[in-house]
Each structure stands twice: as structure tokens, then as C-alpha cells.
Amino acid sequence: MDAASPSRLPVQDGAAREDLVARLPAIVWEADGTENRMTFVSPRSLELLGHEPEVWLGQPGFWEAHVHPEDRPRAVGAVERAIGTGRTARIRYRFQAADGGWRWFQDTISATSTADGAIRLAGVMVDVTDEQGELEAIVAGAVASGVASDLRAAAAVTVAPAPLHQAIVDNLSDGVYYVHPDRQISYWNHGAEAITGYRASEVVGRYCYDNILCHVDGDGNNLCKRHCPLAATMRDGTERSLVVWLRHADGSRRPVLTRTAAIRDAAGAIVGGVEIFNDATGLVEAQDAAEAARRDALTDPLTGLPNRRLLDAVLAARWDELVRDGRGFGFLIVDVDHFKQFNDRFGHDVGDEALRIVAATLRGGVRGGDTLVRWGGEEFAVVVATEDPAGITRVAERLLALIRTAQVRTGGRVLSVRVSVGGAIAARDESLGALFVRADQALLTAKQTGRDRFVLAILEDPAPA
């Protein structure tokens, strides 16, 4: 068999198949599906979970018993789908460690039938606890903002067609490749072929810095030349995990979750490196969906400005600074003058356009440290990062001047728009509600005294006793 074959490690590596399995940054397993018992579990089980491999082998049903009860139906269902459909199943679930804690794993499960009719299962469990924690944090933020909490399901289960494989490393559906210290690729399994589109004969013997896959991170930085995670692991022996985008043989970019580990000889010297990678499309899509949901929950869809939820968070932070450090701030309410007449005379579409024009103009007028939001209806609010009355007045007057030059163009007409502004300076001895009331009263005064103007509420000092 030639050295490019994915079904045997090159002899010159001096590493047996069992050693490669042991070094993989994942738990590799095989099971007898007919008798519901494990027949092989790699040594990583002890490191990642505290379970000796022999414990798995000696207890039928060990795997199922240690899957989290909430995840067990999905996990068992994934096994049944792999058996019943002949397709590889990828499933995320929690697994109980020897200390009683729970770790998140992405498990890739394949099934095949032997000549005597027995069912053999094989797979690889990749620890994704950190990635799941990041996703949970994103989802938690979205849920806290009023977004549906079922976004977790987007990353929970994916089932994709893949060839059925019969050997532990050679035929895992996850990609595995091995490199020498000089980064020459000496091994490329069937999973790597399936995920990347490159045959072993096209890759083995070349160097990973040849930019075959041209890995880039989420910011588009090329990793293969100077920032290769696998090269870094071979330098310091530290395992690494990273979502990267590889370039498929068809030219497309595809996200994969990579794990790297060093290969050591009997004396402990690093003699190479191994990387295992699998499709991360579901994880990336779930993260993107959660981020988008959180943004949507904090954004006004008409104007694109932050909404009242974000304002509440900003005000809470500013209030803490005021109470703790004495750093004050100002608060402005901006109200579109005669807005009802816009709607009644020209229609709601023109009214909506007027709000968009006002929002865009205000956005261009606030300073970097200030926060502009849509307060509701035809009102906007600005948190001004100063307690100086002159500074707050300058901000308000600038906004008024900019709005005076703005135009609403519709149906061949050019309409002008005006706003009134009321403001107040936060004080330690009052509540946020009282601040809102004073700013609103100042706005009312601006409306009653001619509109298109700014009024700042002055908090009078208490009379001496």
C-alpha cells in the first residue's frame, strides 16, 4: 500500500495506530450495537472525564447511563438513526464525568453491519464544553432581551450523509491528519477527504503551510503561514481548539472546529502533531443566529437605532457610576414637532420616513461617548456623557441645528421637520423615574414656548432648614 493511502499510518512515522488514537484530542470508541456494550475506548476518556476505559468496557449500557437525562433521548435517537439510515449522525450532549460534573461533547456516530449480522458502532467524542459555554452565554443574552430560548436547538443535532467506515482512525467521519515536526503531512484519513474534497494522494507529502486548505480565522487572517495552531502545539505541547474556515477543493469556504495535539515518542519528545476537525456549520449558524436575535431584540426595526431595552442597560450603568464614582450624566428627550400632522396629512409611510430621517440626523449629531435610542413613538432619547449644563446645552443645540437642515422627500415634495428637546442632569438623591419626569417637563415647556427649542430642567437646591 502506498504512503498516500489513508488507511495506514506511514511506517517511517514510528507511531502505531494505537498511539495515534491515544493522542487524538478526543475520545475514540467502538461498540457492539447488538449487545449494547463498548468494545474499545481510547485513553483520553481518563483525561477528559476521569473514567478508565476499562470501566466503559466492563459495564453494558455505561455510555447511555452517563448521558445527561435531558439529552439522552436525542443521543439514543442519533444512534438509532445511524443504524437505521446508514448515515453518520452528529449529536451534542452532556456526559457525566467521574467527579459528577458534566462536560459537553460533539459525538460523531457511524454504524455498519458485519457479515454475521452484528451491528458495529464507531465514533469520536470531541469535548466542546468551552464552545458550548460561549454559545450558552450568547443565547442567555438573547433570552434576557426577550428572544426565544430555543436557539440552542440550532446547534444541538445535525445529521449529514457520509460514507460508512469500518476502522477507528482511517475511517472516522471526522477529519484527521498527521504532520512531521517540519509540518509535512504524512497521513490524511477518509474523513479529511470527505470534509475538504482533497484526496490523500493530493495532500500526503506536501506541507500544511503550502496553503492547501488556506485556513483563516473569523477575522479573515491567514493561519497557515505564521499562526498555525498545529505548529504552535508542536512547539509547546499545548492542545488547542479553534473554529476556522478552510478552503474546500471546490473553492468554497467552510467552517470547521479544529483540535490539535502533539505526538510524542516513548521518551516524551514531540515527534509530530495531529489535528482532528469536523464540520462547524451548525455551531457557527447557531452563534450567528443568537447574535442576530440579540441585536434585533435591542434594535428598533424602523430606524435602526437601539431601543428602550438598551437604554435601560446604559442608564443602569451610568447610574452606578454616578452613585459609586460621582460621574454624572445628562438626559435628553427629543420629540418630533407636529408629528401627528405628518401622519394625518401625508400618511403613515411619510411619517415613518420622517422618523428615519430624524434618526439618521440625530445619529450623526451625537458624540462618541453619548448614547442615542428611539424612546418610543416620535420620541428619541440621548444619554449625554457629561453633567456640565453648558456641555449638555451644546449637544442639544447642535441636534436642533442639524434637524433644521434635514428634509423629508416624498412624492416630489420636500418637507421640513422640527423637533423640541427637553433635558435634565442626573442627581444622586433622586431616582431614574424622577430624572425622566424632569426631562419630560422640560420638553413640555419647550413645546409650550414655541417648539423647535431646548429647555434644560434645573434641579433647585433644597431650601435651608
What attributes characterize this protein structure?
elongated, 465 residues, alpha+beta, Alpha-Beta Plaits, Beta-Lactamase, 6-stranded antiparallel sheet, 18 strands
Structure characterization notes:
- Helix content is 37%, strand content 26%.
- It has 465 residues and is an alpha+beta fold.
- Helix 6 (129-144) runs parallel beside helix 11 (281-297), helix 13 (339-346) runs antiparallel to helix 14 and helix 14 (348-365) packs across helix 15.
- The strands form four sheets. It has a six-stranded antiparallel beta sheet, with helices on both faces. Strands 8-7-11-10-9 form a five-stranded antiparallel beta sheet. The chain has a five-stranded mixed beta sheet with strand order 13-14-12-17-18, sandwiched between helices.
- The protein has helices spanning 17-23, 44-49, 53-58, 62-66, 72-85, 129-144, 153-156, 190-196, 200-203, 229-236, 281-297, 308-325, 339-346, 348-365, 389-404, 432-448, and strands at residues 27-32, 37-41, 89-96, 102-113, 119-127, 157-159, 175-179, 185-188, 240-247, 253-264, 270-279, 330-336, 371-376, 379-384, 407-410, 413-416, 419-425, 454-456.
- It has 16 helices and 18 strands.
- The chain has two domains: 11-279, Beta-Lactamase (2-Layer Sandwich), CATH 3.30.450.20; 302-456, 2-Layer Sandwich (Alpha-Beta Plaits), CATH 3.30.70.270.
